[in-house]
Write a structure and sequence with these properties.
The chain has 342 residues and is α/β, with parallel strands linked by helices. The chain has one domain. Helix content is 44%, strand content 8%. Strands 2-1-3-4-5-6 form a six-stranded mixed sheet. Strand 5 and strand 6 form a beta hairpin. The chain is globular, with a radius of gyration of 22 Å. The termini are far apart.
Length: 342
């Protein structure tokens, strides 16, 4: 075979395979990046979507343009279903932008992106006391460099059009179509479509936690709780015990301050709430965290108040109200009942 013919054949084969991979990736859309219409029984569930959770949340958020935005960690992601009938008609569309393991920095980034795409009218942010157990830093410390999760946002930290966005979008397209991982995730998506046990993320960002049905059937809920609490105990024993004398020296307080300012600047009603923890979890906090916190009287005195489920509503004019968990959903949009919506 003539060398030029070989290279032409080889190049044509590579291009053809790449085109097939792109078509497959867009059609299956394992990370919901493209918003391709789902085919029931084939691509409706996305069992590998959490391999690229940030890609999925960001592009879905921008497509939905929610009127109500949910932010926080896994407790919000699996606890508040945007498709629940408990949401009033004026709240829709609702999007769950919470991410497992996310901190307030992630919540701030998702709020920035939502404001740039379509400013939400209401923002719900779930807070955990442990989010604020940090070592204080210097207010003059240089900002952390931007990573891919921040570069794909519509705006930068100053609210201006993000110069890194176009290149990051192309990188995400390659990750979602032209990589071995994407190809394997395409195949896994086509094969794993069990509505009872397949892991997935809904088009509105909700994690129904289907796979835990299988875990519970095998181990029982008691074993799942016990395992999780043991993991928490080993982690929480190493948490610092800050005194909170200078709140803005703690990154989480600064992120929360920025979230509040951003919501108020765009006339959005912001609802901050602490989660109604399971009794076993509260007992574990009492056993592990309280002795550490009581070494510092100011912070120890705050633990009892923060561990109680509460909701703070910050209105569009900056008015603030503090309500107990049993009452906060009526004036703040019936949200706590959604914690039991499943």
């Amino acid at each position: 075979m003539h060398p030029l013919s070989f290279f032409a054949w080889f190049g044509g084969t590579v291009v053809g395979l790449a085109c097939l991979a792109i078509v497959l990736g867009v059609a299956v859309d394992p990370y919901r990046m493209y918003g391709t219409a789902a085919v029931p029984g084939w691509t409706a569930l996305k069992p590998r979507i959490y391999n690229q959770a940030s890609i999925a949340k960001t592009y879905q958020l921008e497509r939905v343009g929610p009127r109500t935005l949910l932010l926080g960690n896994s407790r919000v992601e699996i606890g508040l279903d945007p498709a629940s009938p408990r949401w009033p008609a004026e709240a829709h569309p609702v999007f769950n932008a919470a991410l497992a393991g996310a901190n307030l920095r992630t919540s701030l980034d998702m709020l920035r992106d939502a404001v740039a795409a379509h400013p939400p009218e209401t923002v719900l942010l779930g807070l955990d006391f442990l989010d604020f157990l940090q070592v204080p830093d210097s207010l003059t410390a240089p900002p952390a460099p931007t990573g891919p999760d921040e570069r794909r946002l519509l705006v930068d930290r100053d609210g201006k059009p993000n110069p890194g966005r176009p290149l990051q979008v192309w990188r995400d397209r390659i990750v979602a179509t032209l990589t071995i991982d994407a190809f394997l995730d395409d195949l896994a998506t086509l094969v794993d479509q069990d509505p009872e046990t397949s892991e997935t993320m809904t088009p509105l960002g909700f994690n129904p936690l289907n796979e835990y049905r299988l875990f519970a059937a095998r181990q029982g809920y008691n074993a799942l709780f016990a395992q999780k609490n043991e993991v928490y105990k080993s982690q929480y024993r190493h948490y610092p015990a800050p005194d909170f004398v200078e709140p803005l020296r703690f990154p989480s307080f600064r992120y929360l301050h920025s979230i509040i300012g951003l919501a108020m600047a765009h006339d959005a009603r912001l609802i901050l709430f602490t989660h109604p923890y399971h009794a076993d979890y509260l007992d574990m906090l009492h056993e592990v965290i309280l002795p550490v916190m009581m070494n510092s009287r100011p912070s120890g005195c705050r633990l009892r108040a923060i561990a109680t489920p509460r909701c703070v509503g910050i209105g569009r004019r900056g008015t603030t109200s503090l309500l107990s968990a049993t009452r906060c959903w009526r004036p703040c949009w019936a949200a706590l009942p959604a914690l039991a919506l499943r």
